């Protein structure tokens, strides 16, 4: 089954069947020419994180920007990005936006 564009990229993705509520399996966009694509992301969360939350997310270098907080990743693949977003969700933070800042193909 094909779905629409992936986050405005203009590419379509194919997803496997969803059984028992499992997440879809994305088959496009994870590799480029056989190499895994890693990218840096900026994740903006709503609100100003206090010292405890900043410490919990210290590896993401939180920076308060106006009413929101920016979290910056090192180069990660899609699985790692979803893990980071899971951590953010587990801390009950509201995600405002996610921006890809650059990418590189690694072997």
Topology readout:
Layout: E1 2-5, E2 12-14, E3 31-32, E4 35-46, H1 51-56, E5 63-65, E6 68-72, H2 78-90, E7 95-106
Antiparallel strand pairs: 1-2, 3-4, 4-6, 4-7, 5-6
Query: How many structural domains?
Result: 2
Q: What's the architecture of the largest domain in CATH terms?
A: 2-Layer Sandwich
Arithmetic mean of pLDDT: 77
Tell me the fraction of residues in β-strands, as a range.
35-45%
Question: Which series of helices and strands comes N to C?
Answer: EEEEHEEHE
Q: Give the overall silhouette.
A: globular
**E-strand count:** 7
Helix content: 10-25%
Output the number of helix runs.
2
- Ranges with pLDDT <50 over ≥5 residues? 1-19, 22-29
Largest sheet: 5 strands, antiparallel
User: What's the CATH topology name of the largest domain?
Assistant: Alpha-Beta Plaits
Fold and architecture overview:
The protein has two domains: 1-31, no CATH class; 33-106, Alpha-Beta Plaits, CATH 3.30.70. The chain is 18% helix and 38% strand. The protein has two helices and seven strands; from the N terminus they run ββββαββαβ. The protein has 107 residues and is of the alpha+beta class. Strands 3, 4, 5, 6 and 7 form a five-stranded antiparallel sheet that branches. Strands 1-2 form a two-stranded antiparallel ribbon.
């Amino acid at each position: 089954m094909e779905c629409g564009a992936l986050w405005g990229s203009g590419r379509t993705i194919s997803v496997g069947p969803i059984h028992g509520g499992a997440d879809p399996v994305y088959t496009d966009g994870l590799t480029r020419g056989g190499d895994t694509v890693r990218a840096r992301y900026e994740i903006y969360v709503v609100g100003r994180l206090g010292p405890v939350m900043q410490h919990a997310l210290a590896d993401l270098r939180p920076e308060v920007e106006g009413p929101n907080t920016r979290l910056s990743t090192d180069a990660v693949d899609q699985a790692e990005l979803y893990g980071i977003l899971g951590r953010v969700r587990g801390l009950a933070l509201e995600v405002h936006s996610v921006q890809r800042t650059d990418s590189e193909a690694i072997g």
